[in-house]
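Message: A physicist's question: would you kindly supply an amino acid chain plus fold tokens?
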Amino acid sequence: MALKLGPITLPWPKTEDDPYWERFLKSAPADKRNAITEMLGNQPEGAVAPVRADLHTPEITSTHIKELALYVGSDLTGIARLPADPDGYQFAVVCVVKAEHDPRQAPGIGGQVPVMNGRFSTFVLGAYIRELGFRATTDGNPNPDAQRLAAAAGLGRLDAKGRLVTSKYGDKVHVAEIIRTDLPLAPDGDLT
């Protein structure tokens, strides 16, 4: 139910003919420092704790990682086993965030909310894994294989354009940065 306060109606209608809404979605910030994605992307990764934590089984550890991801903002999280990696990373943790607007088409602050949420989720998960005494890294840039990794992690399937389609959100999703780690996990699928 809308509340009318003189010329203002709450909740604020999100219509395509509203110039403020259009700017919110489609105009990139004049200064990138106004977006949290820039701040989180420029932060150095922390050090790995010198003593490894005692862990449960890989299945339980995977459940804990997925629950933490949900808590910090990821809508869907999956784990894929990586092919032999020269750096020794065995698993990819993939976080997917619901996106009303495609961030590639909506460079404004409002259109980048899924990117911000995804970057925050991967930042916190990577920090937590390093605090457990295991290596965890993100590329800091959009991974060209992110969609394929998300499908391999059991989060959905790829459509004809190579975009992830989930059963819960359809194609209205953003695949966040990929966390590569050596934390022993139980994968939901393999990257082949």
